[in-house]
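BUG: 3D viewer hangs when loading the predicted structure for this chain

Environment: internal workstation, default settings.
Expected: structure renders.
Actual: progress bar stalls at 90%.

Input used:
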Amino acid sequence: MTANNDRHEWVRAQLPLAAAGALSSAELSEVMQHSSRCESCRRELEAWGSYAKGLRELPQPVFPADLLARTQRRVLENREQALERRRNGLILGALAVFSWITNFGFWIVVRTLTGGTFELWGTNVVDAGPWLLVSTMLTWLTAGVAGVTLGSHRHTRRFQ
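Structure tokens produced before the viewer hung:
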């Protein structure tokens, strides 16, 4: 009895697909055979059939003739923008590395020229700690300004 009940549930699940014409011929044949013997499945198949018929009678949407061309153009534009963002990220990364290298070199030069001592407001600014703190803040500030500048000019959407 369980196998028949499982098969009945399988057929019930296939009824909407059968009404829509989305089953293979073998599956459709099995659903139709079962529906001819099972009153509840036959009624449900008829209901699904009327739904499918009603849906087929609804007006179909008309797509603009240039929809494909506009979509392809938009995809290409988005791809170009993604490449530009990636390129900007690489440039910012390279500039950050360049900034650290330049800063380290400048620190060595200033430390050598001042003899390792340059007091400002009671702090030796050529010690590694204060120098690193100030240079890191300046690097982040510069990177932030560059990021805002690079990112602000391309974020307008164009609908055509």
